[in-house]
What we know:
Number of domains: 1
Strand order of the largest sheet: 3-2-1-4-5-6-7
CATH topology: Rossmann fold
Shape: globular
InterPro entries: NAD(P)-bd_dom_sf, Sc_DH/Rdtase_CS, SDR_fam
CATH architecture: 3-Layer(aba) Sandwich
Number of helices: 8
Helix content: 40-55%
Largest sheet: 7 strands, parallel
Structural class: alpha/beta
Keywords: Oxidoreductase
Bound molecules: nicotinamide-adenine-dinucleotide
GO molecular function, one term: oxidoreductase activity, acting on the CH-OH group of donors, NAD or NADP as acceptor
Protein name: SDR family oxidoreductase
Radius of gyration: 17 Å
CATH superfamily: NAD(P)-binding Rossmann-like Domain
CATH class: Alpha Beta
Pfam families: adh_short_C2 (PF13561)
Distance between the termini: 37 Å
Order of helices and strands: EHEHEHEHEHEHHEH
Amino acid sequence: MKLDVSGKTALITGASGGLGAHFAEVLAAAGAQVTLSARRADKLADVTADLRTKGYEADAVDLDVTDEASVKALFAQRSFDIVINNAGISGEGMAIDMPAEAFDQVINTNLRGSFLVAQAGASALRAAGKPGAIVNIASILGLRVGGGLVAYTASKAAVVQMTKAMALEWARYGIRVNALCPGYIETPINAEFFQTKPGLALISRIPQRRLGRESELDGALLLLASDAGSYITGTTLAVDGGHLVSGL
Length: 248
Ligand code: NAD
């Protein structure tokens, strides 16, 4: 069985850069017609142009995952065989003094946003009588704690449990829902931090003693999104160089 998504349509949220843009290319290269979304579609122009230059089918839409009306409006017009709930914010903050508004913002984006997109995605598939695959990008910080990230950790843990609840409810419609939990993956945004003393200390606690590369998420993403994973639902797949089992 090849990890192939030919003939399928896929929506990726938060796709203007980082992992979202990467996931869009991975799915496009595996044959999907990809729709990239971001709060401002103009920010997607370069990424979609690059994909088209490579011969892939790609378009772009505006989508703020926290805006319920926009989410519903998008899925009222279209259904997607694959939905990648990637948009997220880290919202650093200590539990002792994090303003409630900042806490709310993280939960609103990471948890409520993923809920809205998955719900609308599943409703559209159900209305079209089609099966589908939803991949919620959680984090190993949904399964273990990380200092100074109280809201992020809480949001990702909730995404993991929400994924299981959705999988249980939507299996009867042929809709699979899984959580992909990346460990520490090197992206342009965090590259600088991982050169610092605390960043290097963190890397030393990963059993494989290095950060993950974006490309090392590809197999897991495609397994969960494609028919190769047709009997996988409600699972949590960590790609973390052994971080979860290190206990550190
Ligand atoms: P990133 O900041 O580069 O990407 C997040 C994207 O989400 C950005 O494009 C941002 O504009 C978008 N976004 C934020 N709020 C949004 C909203 N309301 N509506 C639509 N889009 C919105 O970070 P990344 O590292 O590429 O992370 C992508 C996902 O992977 C996130 O969910 C993150 O929590 C998760 N993750 C990343 C790592 C890592 O090491 N990079 C590890 C574990 C989990």
